[in-house]
Design goal:
Largest sheet: 7 strands, mixed
Bound molecules: S-adenosylmethionine
Mean pLDDT: 96
Helix content: 25-40%
CATH class: Alpha Beta
Strand content: 15-25%
Structural class: alpha/beta
Length: about 180
């Protein structure tokens, strides 16, 4: 059975403790619910099954740019493997900011340029944005988040020069563009 990669859980746990509310936008099967239990809430544009073997597990059906969630109510907003699908990323970031409490964290786990190029070649289209991790960071900054940083797809985040090296390596050889920002 598929579950969320360990680094995804580990990064979220760096910002979470029991009682802190997590919203996942574009939650699909909501694999993170198993880990974060009653602190977790998932929204998606649909609650239809992908197929007989893979169901969606959605608390609230709504598009990412019109969240049916109260202002200032969430501690953490996660968007995993979904941001590239959103038609209006700027409007979705504004909604993420609206529902976060002050000091709350947005964490986006998206596919990087290399992965999107490979997917597009395999699937024969050019539908999805191909942002670098730095491009995604800029987009989050431009939509009003503070302390925005790129993260590495590992359980423990490297620091200093090792982080710079890891980011370059991730851009060229890795699959992920990960960005964390704070609502101020
Ligand atoms: C590839 S799945 C990822 C599911 C889950 N986040 C995970 O990592 O397992 C992307 C999900 O985003 C949802 N989605 C696509 N466009 C959306 C939108 N505009 N608003 C909300 N959800 C959307 C899809 O329905 C789908 O369930």
């Amino acid at each position: 059975m598929y579950k969320a990669p360990e680094f995804v859980i580990s990064i979220i746990q760096d910002y979470w403790e029991h009682g802190r509310k997590i919203l996942e936008i574009g939650c699909g099967p909501a694999f993170l619910r198993k880990v974060f239990a009653e602190d977790y809430i998932g929204t998606d544009i649909t609650d239809s099954a992908y197929n007989d073997n893979l169901l969606r597990d959605v608390d609230i059906v709504c598009p990412a740019d019109q969240l049916l969630i109260e202002d200032n109510s969430m501690d953490i907003v996660i968007i995993k493997s979904a941001f590239y699908l959103f038609d209006n990323p700027g409007a979705c970031l504004k909604e993420a900011k609206r529902v976060l409490k002050q000091g709350g964290k947005l964490i986006i786990f998206d596919y990087n340029r290399k992965t999107q190029k490979e997917l597009q070649l395999k699937e024969g289209h050019e539908r999805y944005p191909c942002w670098t991790q730095w491009g995604l960071k800029k987009l989050v900054q431009n939509n009003g988040f503070s302390n925005v940083e790129n993260l590495i797809a590992t359980n423990r985040q490297p620091l200093g020069f090792r982080k710079i090296y890891s980011l370059l390596r991730q851009e060229i050889l890795g699959n992920w563009a990960i960005v964390c920002g704070t609502k101020r």
